[in-house]
Design goal:
The complex is a heterodimer of chains A (341) and B (279). Chain A is α/β, with parallel strands linked by helices. Chain A has helices at 55-63, 89-96, 118-129, 142-158, 164-167, 177-189, 207-224, 235-241, 259-264, 269-277, and strands at residues 13-24, 27-39, 44-48, 70-79, 82-83, 101-104, 195-199, 227-232, 244-249, 252-258, 322-324, 329-332. In chain A, a hairpin with a 2-residue loop joins strand 1 and strand 2 (27-39). Chain B is mainly alpha-helical and 279 residues long. The chains are: A alpha/beta (341), B mainly alpha (279).
Chain lengths: 341, 279
Amino acid sequence: MAADPTNARPPLLSVANLRVSIASDEGLAQVLDGVSLDVAEGRIVGVVGESGCGKSTLVRAVLGILPRGARTESGSIHFAGEDLLTLDERAMTRRIRGRAIGFIPQDPYLALNPVFRVGTQLLEIMRWHGDGSEDGAGPFNRARRARHRLWLIQILKAVQLPDPEQALDRYPHQFSGGQRQRLLIAGALACRPRLVIADEPTTALDVTTQLEILKLLKRLVAEFGVSMLFVTHDVGVVAQLCDEVAVMYAGQSVEWGGTGELLARPRHPYTVSLLACHPDRADGLVGIAGQVPSALAPPTGCRFHPRCGKAMAACAGTKPETTPSGDRHTVACMLYGVPDA
Amino acid sequence: MLLLRKFSKDLPAVLGLAIVVLVLVAALLAPHLAPYPLDAYESHLTRRLKPPSAEYPFGTDNIGRDIFSRVILGTRSALIVSLSVVSGAMAIGVTLGLVAGFYGRWAGEAIMRVTDVFLAVPQLILALALAQLFSPSLESAMLALTLTYWPFFARIVYAETRRLKASLFVDALQCIGASAPRIVFAHILPNAASPIIVRLTIGMGFTILTAAVLGFLGMGAPPPSPDWGLAIAESRQHLPDTWWFATFPGLAIFLTVLGFNLLGDGLRDIVDPRLRRSR
């Protein structure tokens, strides 16, 4: 499974230099300012950053459901050879969202419709997108429904939900948080997507459940041959799950690299402080001085420079270029501005 | 099942349900239950204004018709009127509330401001004005009531839709490729069903009352029909000597409205226990 992302095959998802702004009452907020990342086939890519750094906006931009007032100013989102930014709403609804790109929402307690049985909801997704939606027998084809049900039960077994057959006839409130997250993972995989986007899927769960879900995700990625974009604020989760990591700060990509390499030798001062904040790594509790700047009036140049211990005069002036630094490792920081030729 | 048990412990609600069922049965079987089913349109001038007796349990009216029969026959028109008014109002109000709540923007604002204007004027007065504007008939009374009752539905559906729109499952549905109409009608609407049903039940009673007022003021059913409000209006010249003439149609209105309101209250208690008996 160790596909090398540097080989000739283009990545499954490639976000390049994405800039998104949101018009609000207080002015124009530059929420994403030059975000780039690649997800290669079969890989799990983590996106890490503090709350408010634009992780969720990135996910929404990829799925094409940016909030009202948001505008993609420049950049591109290529998925499986298509530019998602050029697709219309109908194509996104029909072919991308929930179909080619599965989605695991953040809070399993709230992400299911409370008034319908679980089976109804999961089968509904498959009825819109699932295989055989082209066999033209209308939405209530009994044979197809039975086939969907069988496939769903198979997936529910794969996500290790107890009693999958009976589970379909229960309501969401009859499941625990971990079980609900399993149901949502099943929903994300139901239509055989190529990419799964997980938006902090373990944040609302307790630590032991969290670990089980992470193990499960890792196994499913291999089993179903999907790629995964995993958004989180927890560096510990990244270390356990991801192949590559993209670090974001205030709407900018600051560092990118293989998980082991990046965690062992972080380059960007922000990554260094973020890692230092993790309770497992820190001696006592430490934080990063200051807070994530407002997207309405971001600092000029490198957005991290007001909080950075190694800031230089040049940091406030120009936005640092993303430069390679070490083996499959890139960083956007003045400290590494001149790649040694 | 839990809800059913909870409901059965709520004595007023069960009483309300019993009354509603009784009224429904009376309406369904009206021609068979009424001792003089033809008295809706016949007159017997020889037996005018007879007091209640074994032969005429509720007495007779000013042209000798059996009031008991007319009260029973009246259930039918009362229910038909209120049912069509409330379902019409529901269709308009729920649709507008969903659209305004989900799509928002200027269209939603416009819808809700119009709703506010309607809610600012008492429904009865507005309905009277509208009924007067059209030519007075049962149909225009029903139209007037429908046009003035939908804002109540629009309000609650709007509030529910706004709440549900921000909920995570709607967001998740968007992320997995559900189209907007599907989210609104297949997911948000069922979640808003309980308050709609409660409003529907209370609205039934309320509309029967308002329709009776319109009938009383001569803006409802035309004279020979066995209409409760109309009967009370006709009885005015014969009061206070013939107490039974106004009392029994009045009791019919009272009981039916009471039944629907008790039932609606009970349903609301089940749907939202925090609002227990807070009317």
